[in-house]
Amino acid sequence: MMPVIKIENVSKLYKLGFYGADTFRDEVLNFFARLRGKPPVNSVVGATNNLADSDADTDLVWALKDINLTVNQGDIVGIIGKNGAGKSTLLKILSKITTPTTGIVKIRGRIASLLEVGTGMHQELTGRENIFLNGAILGMTKHEIRSKLDDIIDFAGIARYIDTPIKRYSSGMRVRLGFAIAAHLEPEILIVDEVLAVGDAEFQKRAIGKMQDISKGEGRTVLFVSHNMTSIKNLCKTGVLMKNGQIQEVGDVNEIVATYQAQNSQSEEIRKTWSLENAPGENGIKVKYAGIEFEGDRLTVKMPFDIVTEFWCEKEGFPINVSMHLYDAAGNCVFNISTENKPLGNGLHKAVFHVPGNLMNDGIYSVGNMFVSQSTCQFFHKEACGFEIAEDRNKSGWHGKWTGAVRPIGFIPVQYE
Q: What domains are defined for the chain?
């Protein structure tokens, strides 16, 4: 396949606060640095882009740092990462909205971009007038726009409001119209940045289908940024994971999404232990330990395992039950189950829940525990621990015979520490 996008050592430096050099000397040096394709002066002290870091001792931030990526014709590439990872900055550079501080971007073909809701539209103009205005901005001739006008209106699904000023449109209606224009431009490269998040489910499905048609049927290239992992996996074949302005990994989209979700769920922390001083808890309950216990060094779908929680009860005769909640990688509660309500003495206790083999699919999961007394939620520990169940590579299809139901083993008192 022929490359249509080639990104070579691209970096983008931003200065926080007021823009400009501190001295006239710095301005002159920056001017000559730009002529030579070098970064600005003092950029060597620039920090990586971390939104949570308020203690950095510099006001220079690398939004992108040494990005290298090649995209071939017909590829559908999903770009994922946390807010501030550099996804939108990269797409703005590709769309020629901003220029890189260093590096080279080579693009073959016409680009259509959907980066923000309402970009290129005039609030006082009608939907029909904005089709001609936005189409012209994107490079369409008046003849092209007229020939595709009915298709654009039909795809957007806003025929009744097409002669109404778009200042009266909802954000979803503006996205429908903007996407319809860009999709019918017939670009060689279509760039979409999270704008479909404000559309309804029916339109998102139609838009994803249109992007698939653009790529498969017409051999065009799509770059898609979204926080909706289901949409990313349904649409894309290749995934790009970004973190702190750098490309962390490129590969099969399912593997990239799994890596991203594992990082967010901290699935590598299969056991967590706290001391009494820093233990999470309230209302007389503090969690000492939460973890998954099984035989061997790798949990697979066919293996049974126990979900264990140890906690301090700091009240005598405290009637309590522990409810265990199991979540999948998307945050959906797979099931929850609780122990019986039982008075507990002052001390350290253990609640154990048994999960049989061949019950769970492979994937990433997290555990939350709710400690309840007298029908009142005393404390809910949402992300007590995370873990991963691997597929059994010795089997195919159905994992095997179901060996029982999830059941609480109950409370086991242990020695108070």
A: 3-7+65-263 (3.40.50.300), 271-414 (2.70.50.60)
